[in-house]
Design a protein that fits this description.
The complex is a heterodimer of chains A (305) and B (195).
Chain A lengths: L1 E9 L3 H10 L3 E8 L2 E9 L3 H10 L3 E4 L6 E6 L11 H10 L3 E6 L13 H7 L4 E5 L4 H6 L11 E5 L12 E4 L11 H27 L6 H8 L3 H5 L6 E4 L2 E4 L3 H9 L2 E2 L2 E2 H4 E5 L7 E5 L2 H7 L1
Parallel strand pairs in A: 5-6, 5-7, 7-8, 8-9
Antiparallel strand pairs in A: 1-3, 1-4, 2-3, 10-11, 11-15, 12-13, 14-15
Helix pairs in contact in A: 3-6
Chain B lengths: L1 E6 L2 H18 L5 E9 L4 E8 L6 E2 L4 E6 L2 E6 L5 H12 L4 E3 L4 E4 L4 H6 L1 E3 L1 H15 L6 E7 L2 E7 L5 H26 L1
Parallel strand pairs in B: 1-2
Antiparallel strand pairs in B: 2-3, 3-11, 4-9, 5-6, 6-8, 7-8, 10-11
Helix pairs in contact in B: 1-4
The chains are: A alpha/beta (305), B alpha+beta (195).
Chain lengths: 305, 195
């Protein structure tokens, strides 16, 4: 059984860590370097966890459990205006990143107002590219309830965070966390930290359920295997964007243009098949600077034969 | 600063009280506010905020924020209220040009061939600026989607009403009613203090 861990430490002797991950048959899911700081999210065999922890401690870092590793989650506020950003949307995104997720903060173009709030089809399509969406709404119960149209048609799991507990929204979202509304300062108090933990746990629960649903009809290959393959692809090696390859539960986001790379990527060999045959590759709705690879399930593969 | 909130949503009332404190404190206008009354009605929706300022905002002259002396042909200023330092230096640059104004230390400024009287009487902040700051903070407190707004300003009292619907006369009347109540309370309180 593989376990997902995060090394959080310095760059010093990090090559030894990367070698050890390879030696035990593990996979690097995400590698982020910021100045002298270095974080590595890895998937390693459970029996090697102790040895890996010893190694991480010996090079001056620490190991954390990251239940949301391998997911990309959108945290959405009604707008990008100063009424709704940066707190608490960014605090929630930070809490999710600490749990291992890659997060994206979004503001809707017209999400403000009780009677005038709207979400466009394009915004919904963009949100549907992520593994889950956290919607952050405000302080008035009637306003939160009136804004259910913002997320009721979203196909990915939605976690609603609002001030008061709204009524009648249980069917429109997978989880509701109340007690966090519009605010002007960072969530730093012990009560706030508890709330952030609660949000993180709700997201973990929702992601776990989604993973279980995927396990019922497993993917043809795990996204981590495609990631390993793509890491050798030259345009991605040269890509300067942070996290050029982001894992999703059912595929990956690859931050290169589909137009220029589709031929090369769909021709890649995966267990004797072409990547284009085992995955649906599409352009991201954000723009052509990234593409989405959704790996087909085993039953989809059988149907396509 | 005393804040009174009335409204139909208990959670929202408490949250907006905290929001008011936070935003007013961020905007640096907390010191100029004496009392606040808020009426929050999200069902209409109609939000009214009435603020009593500590004193009627008045304009500030250079002499209120600096001590000034003339030595030979030059005028020397020592900034006594650093809050106005940016306004002081920009006013001096505007009047004499940057080459004649030398900021020697954080607080000391020398002006070549300056006129002490003219500098002393220069306005560095108008009363309207202070009022605009408070109104700006009040606008920021109101929910972003509640765009139709109506302002009443009279002496030390500023009232803002906001709705998402058309700002009709009955809504304006509600704002005026609250403004008058706050004004009456203030008059009664001032009368009591004078006795």
């Amino acid at each position: 059984m593989y376990e997902v861990l995060m090394y959080d430490g310095g760059i010093y002797r990090s090559n030894e860590l990367l070698e050890m991950i390879e030696d035990v048959g593990g996979v690097v899911l995400q590698k982020t370097r910021s100045a002298q700081m270095f974080t590595v999210t890895m998937s390693i065999p459970g029996e090697d966890r102790e040895a890996m922890e010893r190694m991480c401690t010996s090079i001056g870092g620490m190991v954390r459990n990251v239940p949301l590793a391998g997911t990309e989650i959108a945290v959405i506020g009604p707008t990008l205006g100063r009424h709704h950003m940066p707190h608490p949307v960014c605090d929630i995104a930070e809490a999710l990143r600490e749990a291992g997720a890659i997060t994206v903060v979004m503001g809707l173009a017209r999400g403000r107002g009780k009677a005038t709030s709207q979400i466009s089809m394009e915004e919904m399509d963009i949100i549907n590219e992520y593994d889950a969406a956290v919607f952050m709404l405000g302080n008035f119960k009637s306003c939160v309830e009136a804004k259910k149209h913002l997320f009721e048609k979203i196909k990915v799991p939605v976690i609603l965070v609002s001030g008061p507990r709204p009524d009648g929204l249980d069917e429109c979202c997978e989880a509701i966390v109340h007690g966090v509304g519009r605010r002007t300062e960072r969530m730093r108090t012990p009560e706030d930290m508890k709330k952030l933990e609660e949000i993180s746990e709700s997201v973990e629960k929702v992601i776990k359920e989604k993973k279980m649903a995927i396990d019922e009809d497993p993917l043809f290959v795990h996204p981590a295997e495609i990631k390993q393959l793509l890491e050798e692809y030259e345009p991605l090696k040269e890509c300067l964007r942070p996290a050029p390859i982001v894992m999703h539960l059912d595929g990956l986001r690859v931050k290169v243009s589909k137009k220029d790379n589709i031929e090369n990527i769909s021709e890649m060999n995966v267990y004797g098949k072409k990547l284009g045959e085992i995955a649906k590759i599409s352009e991201s709705r954000i723009n052509d600077s990234s593409m989405l690879i959704r790996i087909m399930t085993r039953s989809e593969m059988e149907d396509s034969v | 600063m005393y804040i009174e909130v009335t409204g139909t949503d208990i959670y929202g009332n408490d949250a907006y009280k905290e929001l008011f404190k936070g935003i007013i404190s961020d905007s640096g206008t907390a010191g100029s506010i004496e009392k606040v009354k808020m009426s929050m009605d999200p069902s209409t929706p109609l939000f009214i905020i009435s603020v009593i300022m500590k004193s009627k905002p008045e304009s500030k002259r250079m002499i209120d924020a600096v001590s000034i002396r003339t030595e030979g042909k030059d005028v020397h200023l020592t900034i006594t209220d650093e809050n106005y330092a940016p306004q002081i230096t920009s006013a001096l640059w505007r009047m004499y040009g940057r080459d004649k104004v030398e900021q020697q230390t954080r607080f000391d400024v020398k002006i070549e061939n300056g006129d002490e009287d003219r500098i002393s009487e220069t306005e560095i902040a108008s009363g309207d600026d202070a009022k605009q700051e408070v109104i700006g903070a009040m606008w920021r407190i109101l929910p972003e989607g509640i765009k139709a707004r109506y302002n009443i300003s009279e002496g030390r009292i500023i009232t803002i009403a906001a709705t998402e619907e058309i700002m009709t006369q009955p809504l304006k009347d509600k704002a005026q009613k609250m403004h008058n109540e706050v004004k009456d309370n203030l008059s009664a309180q001032e009368a009591e203090e004078n006795v």
